[in-house]
Amino acid sequence: ISVNLSPREISSDDLADRVAATLAAAEVEPSAVMFEVTESALTAGPDDAIRRLNELRDVGVELAMDDFGTGYSSLGYLRRLPVSVLKIDGAFVRDAANNQRTESMVRAIAQMARTMGMETVAEFVETDELRERMTALGVDFGQGFAIGRPVPIDDVLGDLALYEAMASQEP
Fold first, then answer.
1. CA distance 52 to 48
2. CA 26 to centroid of chain Cα atoms
């Protein structure tokens, strides 16, 4: 499950403690939760935000940089952030099918992430053409209508046992 963190949430001194307590109370493995943070959420107090993200990582949750590529200093933050996933902004993804420069940027982001031990997610993968293009460019995962449409949380939770059974089957 992925959850976006707002600048207000990141500024909370007890964020990691609240997350740990909530996960324990819900009996959810921390590794099943990914928190997504945008660069704008870091701008007010980057050192404090990075400290809090490290505290979250120590709880055991996954961390992702959302909308990667649209900020002013994404690379500067990236080398300091404890993230394991880069979510490539949808503006790059949509434009990659029509623009050679943008396509090169997506390929470079995917390669850089792989070199740094991170995974990549292409946002706004709305067509099969874009899905295939992102795969060819080395992007690990996609998010968008070509992958799946949004569904109510109750439907997802109702099918969770099926998903777990499928995931545990050996290939």
1. 6
2. 22
61-99 pLDDT per residue, tens: 999 999 888 766 567 778 888 999 999 999 999 999 899
Task: For residue range 88-134, list pLDDT tens digits in order.
Answer: 999 999 999 899 999 999 999 999 999 999 999 999 999 999 999 99
DSSP annotation of 42 reads G
The whole-angstrom separation of Cα 162 and Cα 145 is: 22
**Residue 112 burial (CB < 10 Å; 0-12/13-18/19+)?**
middle
Confirm whether pTM is higher than 0.85. Answer: no
| Structural tokens at position 103 | 């396509």
Q: Measure the CA dihedral 66/96/78/39, to 10°.
A: -40
What is the spatial order of strands in the sheet that 119-122 belongs to?
2-4, 34-37, 62-68, 85-88, 119-122, 141-142
Cβ count within 10 A of residue 146: 18
Instruction: Report the DSSP beta bridge partners of residue 121.
Output: 87, 141
Q: What span, in angstroms and rounded, lies between the C-alpha atoms of 110 and 105?
A: 9
